[in-house]
Amino acid sequence: GESVGLHLPTLSVQEGDNSIINCAYSNSASDYFIWYKQESGKGPQFIIDIRSNMDKRQGQRVTVLLNKTVKHLSLQIAATQPGDSAVYFCAENIGGATNKLIFGTGTLLAVQP
Amino acid sequence: DTAVSQTPKYLVTQMGNDKSIKCEQNLGHDTMYWYKQDSKKFLKIMFSYNNKELIINETVPNRFSPKSPDKAHLNLHINSLELGDSAVYFCASSQTRRSGGTIYFGEGSWLTVV
């Protein structure tokens, strides 16, 4: 459950609207990026990933955009549904011989019916 | 079937106790991880094992000791529990130890130290 005093960046959208969640990553050497969705009381769930040699990748209702120039990642969710309400994390992998993810702080997506 | 399963889901214990969290994955993956999520939802890697070999060991107190009896299991043992150890601990696994392997998480173990 949520902790008292927890203040995550929050994005509030109406059901059916498109959502855009933004993330700034820290390491210019990162070569792999992932978006995870975490529902209350559950573990992070893989949504979509993108490698550094791409700038856009599409999945079902989701699109990830990567701008390496400004070290920015975004997740677009089309036709947002109540079931999309969750905390969304971006994660970067600094690459190399170990699969080590560095997570961002998370954004709470609240979908209003 | 649950891909990455960890037990217990909830654990309340007193300061000074020793406790373990168990993790198993049935995905056939070679690499397993422990992550810690604090009260601000910040997720941070603690350890990673590849085929029972320790490959990532972040700055974690040595009261935390991971043990991997085989590549499908990675347990976390914590000695002399402190109040600050209260957190959610996530086990995870991936096919590869190298960058780019999708990491799959378990449902978490909520540890509360009182």
Brief account:
Helix content of chain A is 0%, strand content 50%. Chain A is an all-beta fold and 113 residues long. Chains A and B meet through strand 3, strand 4 and strand 8 of A and strand 5, strand 9 and strand 10 of B.
How many helix segments of chain B?
Answer: 0
Helical coverage of chain B, percent range: under 10%
On the 0-100 scale, what is the average pLDDT of chain A?
91
- What would you report as the Rg of chain B, rounded to the nearest angstrom? 13 Å
Quaternary organisation: heterodimer
Q: Roughly what percent helix of chain A? A: under 10%
Q: Quick one: how many beta strands of chain B? A: 11
Biggest beta-sheet profile of chain A = 6 strands, mixed
Instruction: Note the total helix count of chain A.
Output: 0
**Helix/strand structural class of chain B:** mainly beta
| N- and C-termini, Cα separation of chain B | 34 Å
Order of helices and strands of chain B: EEEEEEEEEEE
The SSE string of chain A, one letter per element, is EEEEEEEEEE
Could you tell me the strand content of chain B as a percent range?
over 45%
The total of beta strands of chain A comes to: 10
Strand portion of chain A, in percent? over 45%
Secondary-structure content class of chain A = mainly beta
> Could you report the average pLDDT of chain B, rounded to the nearest whole number?
93
Report on the biggest sheet of chain B. 7 strands, mixed
Low-confidence stretches of chain A: none
